[in-house]
Amino acid sequence: MLSGAEQVDNFIAKFDPAMGKLIRSIRAALRKRFPTAIELVYDNYNFFVIGYSPTERPTDYIVSLAANAKGVGLSFNHGATLPDPAKILLGAGKQNRFIRLPNAAALAKPEVEALLRAAIEQAKTLPASGRGRTIIRSVSVKQRPRKLQAGG
């Protein structure tokens, strides 16, 4: 049986090489930002998702990386209630908001860093020490293509 890390590598390998590199760089930056968080991984029909959570409960995630063939987003679980003076959050749901991430450096922009700090303050407390682990939560047998199709 494959380890969680090996499974994640296999999920990312389904993407075009450039997209895989982008996903890995953003994941590394988020893991550095949330070293004690649990990574909740979903390889679903529409998206490959890694949520960063203080618990194993999917509803407790703080942020998640969500990728498809067209790009990577950073989803804020309670984004609708976060202060967003720069108006960078997208989405109109009652709870979730997201931003698009063209690269991992976008996470260091002041307006994104402010959102991350606010999301952490809102969330359940992350463990102060230790190292988070990776849990594969679900894998869909049927999935949208992870690589861009001709004309797509």
Describe the structure.
- It is a single chain.
- The protein is 26% helix and 22% strand.
- The chain is an alpha+beta fold and 152 residues long.
- The chain has one domain: Aspartate Aminotransferase, domain 1 (Alpha-Beta Complex), CATH 3.90.1150.
- Strand 3 and strand 4 form a beta hairpin.
- The mean pLDDT is 91.
Secondary structure elements and pairings:
Blueprint: H1 4-13, H2 17-33, E1 38-43, E2 48-53, E3 63-68, E4 71-76, E5 97-100, H3 110-122, E6 134-139
Parallel strand pairs: 1-6
Antiparallel strand pairs: 1-2, 2-3, 3-4, 4-5
Strand composition percent: 15-25%
Radius of gyration: 15 Å
Number of separate helices? 3
Q: Termini, distance in Å?
A: 35 Å
The count of β-strands is 6
Helix content: 25-40%
CATH architecture: Alpha-Beta Complex
In sequence order, what are the helices and strands, one letter per element?
HHEEEEEHE
Order of strands, widest sheet: 5-4-3-2-1-6
Q: What is the average per-residue confidence, as pLDDT, rounded to a whole number?
A: 91
- The tally of domains stands at 1
Helix/strand-derived class? alpha+beta
Main sheet: strands, sense, barrel: 6 strands, mixed
Could you name the ranges where pLDDT drops below 50 across 5 or more consecutive residues? none
| Overall form | globular
| CATH level-3 fold name | Aspartate Aminotransferase, domain 1
Could you name the CATH class? Alpha Beta
